[in-house]
Amino acid sequence: ELAAVKVKANIIGNQVEALKTEGEAKQLAFSASLLASGAGYTGPFNTHINLIFKHVATNIGNAYNPNTGLFTAPVRGVYHFEFYIHGVGSNNPTSAVLLKNGEQICTAWTHQPTSGQKASNGVSLLLDIGDVVFLRMWANSRIYDNDNRHTTFSGHLLFTM
């Protein structure tokens, strides 16, 4: 009888741990800006480049990697992402595209020869565990950021599935 109680206690303990982990996984949010500090341009380059948002304001759940710029889904669910890009007038557009596992999902693009400009976009996506979301700057584009954090990338889990 004592052995049966111990087995039940272990099962219940495992279930409690699983519920704790599931509850923690439901708390996922990140927000980051492009430059770690200072001011400057990224681009233009003659090829597309992945953007790495280095100044992390929040990274609850640590699903965003500021060394690679990749968000990797730790749980299956619906996530919302949004991004804002800033440019200063030039011959080059200001543009970025959000990708899921390398597939283009949505873009933000603006171009004007003088003064400041901003573009933004957002999307809600169903992600499976291990799906990767990131931003890429189009070839011949130029993006500006400074300590005012004009260029940002954010995402959060809406609900698990």
TrEMBL record:
Pfam families: C1q
GO cellular component terms listed in the entry, alphabetical order: extracellular region
Localization (cell): Secreted
UniProtKB keywords: Secreted, Signal
Major site of localization recorded for this protein: secreted
C1q domain segment(s): 23-161
PANTHER family, alphabetized: CEREBELLIN 13-RELATED (PTHR22923:SF102), CEREBELLIN-RELATED (PTHR22923)
Protein's name according to its UniProt entry: Cerebellin 10
Record organism: Poecilia formosa (Amazon molly)
